[in-house]
């Protein structure tokens, strides 16, 4: 018995070490001077590390955060660490369609160029809740909000081409489903499944958008950043979920900086500038995508459904 326990423990630690040793870092030397980048959810976790690294490379970095306090604190810290004064905070609450529209309007009016949009902000919740727009909060923050933001910023991204969109999705897309009749989860709610569904939508959007953007000079890809103990479960009141997630994170053995590597790889590398409609893990293209992403009819249906739910007038923005 004791021997079996020891063997299991050795295997666990060996696999953990293997994961740590095979983790990839993006090229640290690519300059981003002259590039304008937006990172949403840039005050914490993976988004903060991503924004900091882009500032270190000389980009103009716009931190899109919902809290004025946390956003300005992150801005000040990034400026002090990188000495890049071209880092600004702008408020955006992805759980509000009005806020997303105001943020996008401000960007269009004040920025001449936008080269990289990183849709990083995201949340997890074990409790069902609805936004002021009547949409499931997790679905809106993780999918409908970034969908609207991206659509509104596309004219500027196209004008600034070559440009890139990076959607921070998750390997949990594999467990997602799309229920058009109840994507507000009114009849049944499970926090983990809702999160998976939002990340699947994110990925399907990435692929559909890449098709629609062929030959425009704008590429769009999605990433899984790794399983990392950030603040993502702070809004989760279910202790079992929190402990389960902490164990997974311990097993994966990654830091916030590690989590920023794949978004940074797509934002800065030549590979990230040429690939489109792809999913990346550990700085490499991955096939760990739900088979549902290959269903063209489903992709188009989700596109139309999303337009309708957020009342987006396709003709108002050129695509
Ligand atoms: N950590 C993981 O294991 C993991 C795995 C796969 C994918 N991801 C994805 O990685 C992304 C970054 O997450 P993280 O792990 O770095 O978590 P995090 O530390 O909690 O960061 C999430 C960021 O999103 C922001 N945010 C949440 N709700 C928002 C809203 N309504 N409007 C605007 N911003 C909002 C948060 O702002 P506040 O500070 O104000 O809450 C925070 O800045 C997310 O999309 C997440 O789904 C994470």
Automatic annotation (TrEMBL):
Keyword Signal: yes
Signal peptide (from-to): 1-21
Source superkingdom: Eukaryota
InterPro entries according to UniProt: NAD(P)-bd_dom_sf (IPR036291), SDR_fam (IPR002347)
CDD domains, alphabetized: retinol-DH_like_SDR_c_like (cd05327)
Keyword Nucleus: no
MF terms in GO: oxidoreductase activity
The entry's keywords: Oxidoreductase, Signal
Any Pfam family the entry gives: adh_short
Gene3D superfamilies in the record: NAD(P)-binding Rossmann-like Domain
PANTHER family for the chain: PHOSPHATIDYLINOSITOL-GLYCAN BIOSYNTHESIS CLASS F PROTEIN, PHOSPHATIDYLINOSITOL-GLYCAN BIOSYNTHESIS CLASS F PROTEIN-RELATED
Name used for this protein in its record: Uncharacterized protein
């Amino acid at each position: 018995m004791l021997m079996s326990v020891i063997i299991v423990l050795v295997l666990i630690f060996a696999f953990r070490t293997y994961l740590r040793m095979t983790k990839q870092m993006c090229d640290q030397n690519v300059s981003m001077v002259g590039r304008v980048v937006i990172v949403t959810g840039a005050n914490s976790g993976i988004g903060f590390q991503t924004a900091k690294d882009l500032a270190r490379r000389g980009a103009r970095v716009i931190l899109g955060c919902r809290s004025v306090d946390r956003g300005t604190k992150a801005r000040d810290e990034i400026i002090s660490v990188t000495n890049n004064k071209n880092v600004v905070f702008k408020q955006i609450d992805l759980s509000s369609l009005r806020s997303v529209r105001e943020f996008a309007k401000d960007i269009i009016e004040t920025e001449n160029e936008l080269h990289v949009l990183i849709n990083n902000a995201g949340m997890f919740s074990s409790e069902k809740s609805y936004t002021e727009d009547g949409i499931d909060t997790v679905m809106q923050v993780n999918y409908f909000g970034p969908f609207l933001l991206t659509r509104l910023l596309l004219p500027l991204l196209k004008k600034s081409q070559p440009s890139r969109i990076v959607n921070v999705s998750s390997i949990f897309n594999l467990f997602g489903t799309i229920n058009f009749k109840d994507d507000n989860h009114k009849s049944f709610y499970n926090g983990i499944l809702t999160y998976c569904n939002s990340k699947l939508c994110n990925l399907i959007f990435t692929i559909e958008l890449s098709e629609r953007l062929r030959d425009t000079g704008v590429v769009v890809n999605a990433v899984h950043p790794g399983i990392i103990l950030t603040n993502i479960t702070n809004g989760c009141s279910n202790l079992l979920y929190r402990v389960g997630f902490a164990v997974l994170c311990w097993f994966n053995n990654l830091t916030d900086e590690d989590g920023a590597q794949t978004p940074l790889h797509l934002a800065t590398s030549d590979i990230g500038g040429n690939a489109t409609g792809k999913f990346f893990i550990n700085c490499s293209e991955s096939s760990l995508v739900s088979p549902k992403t290959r269903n063209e009819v489903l992709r188009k249906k989700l596109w139309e459904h999303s337009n309708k739910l957020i009342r987006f007038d396709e003709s108002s923005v050129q695509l």
